[in-house]
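Kindly draft a sequence, keeping tokens residue-aligned:
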Amino acid sequence: MKVRLTDYDENWPEMFKAEAEFLETIFSDEIIRFEHFGSTSVKGMKAKPVIDMMCIVKDIEKVDSFNGHMDSLGYDVAREWGIVGRRLFRKGGENRSHHIHFYQFDHPEIERHLVFRDYLRVHPQEASRYSRFKEDLTKRYDTTREYSLAKKKFVSDMEQKALRWYKDINSE
């Protein structure tokens, strides 16, 4: 799939909210809460225009029972897709609009994603640096696969910085 990187869109928070409200009608009591994360959740960041949503649930195994219904609604059912204990649904086919990541309430990936998001929100200079890095990558890589692989180390390093920041502010 071709990399699509765009300027921040003021509609992204509303797109998140609308999708959360829709998913609530399907999963109802299974969901504890929704979180908007990833670059579309950070005001001013350049991003692939795909809303990353986190649905934190009571029991991840129960999510599997919704696969047929989600498929009938046009969602790609990607199951764990490389992260044990996650369930991933993708909306929009080749023109994706949402990635919906389901995690059980005690999954360690939840904190990593949310700390990174919060770090970027509180440190606009880091968000800007990350945006510039992504822009540079789009000049060198055409596909999302190549692009994602190329940004992996940069993101991992920044996530570690974010986790140290989080630990520091919570140790005071």
The first strand starts at residue 31 and ends at 37. The CA atoms of residues 29 and 54 lie 16 Å apart. Helices lie at 12-27, 60-63, 67-72, 109-122, 124-140, 144-170. The chain has a mean pLDDT of 95.
